[in-house]
């Protein structure tokens, strides 16, 4: 072999080896990228038709449909009064990939936004933004159970949308019909049974909403506070 040929061979051999190593490394990196996990796939199975809503709670159902190659380490529902809530807002944490989250302690007659979420080592993904409103007292009728000195009786109370009320006792329809006013501050009801009378001579109710029930006290003049409870018809 001629001297020049030998030199070219000795130079080319390590060059070929270097190119081979580079090609193998590129292929390995490409394979690693293709196998890299992604954030999970998660959907909400709650719709306008099946959503469960009360005055202070809303239930959202979710399902992690794929872990995308990495174990799911957190999942649940996040919510806010603003659209597209994230896990930095309020959230639930569930243990199963098919789950139901009941969000409690909400405010009546308020619109909330919800998104299901799931997290793995690759990150967090979200379902579509959904918005639902808690129930409103407007145009609702309730069955009040009143207690006074060991005696109890029932009354039907309708809360009209204009802030007025109609009180009637079903045991004697029309006999005790009374017209009053109502207001709601958060989940606290203030109800004056008879707005035509001075507040010292008419029944005054203060109640707290919880789910689809209400409990509280009422007073009449200087008499001690009495207890009432109510459920919506």
Automatic annotation (TrEMBL):
Q: Does the keyword Transport apply?
A: no
Q: Which top-rank group of organisms is this from? A: Bacteria
Q: What's in the keyword line of the UniProt record?
A: Signal
PROSITE patterns in UniProt: FN3, PROKAR_LIPOPROTEIN
Query: Where is the signal peptide, in residue numbers?
Result: 1-23
Q: Which protein is depicted?
A: Fibronectin type III domain-containing protein
Fetch the InterPro entries from UniProt.
FN3_dom, FN3_sf, Ig-like_fold
Asked if the keyword Signal belongs to this entry, the reply reads yes
Please name the CDD domains in this protein's record: FN3
Q: Where is the Fibronectin type-III domain?
A: 37-144
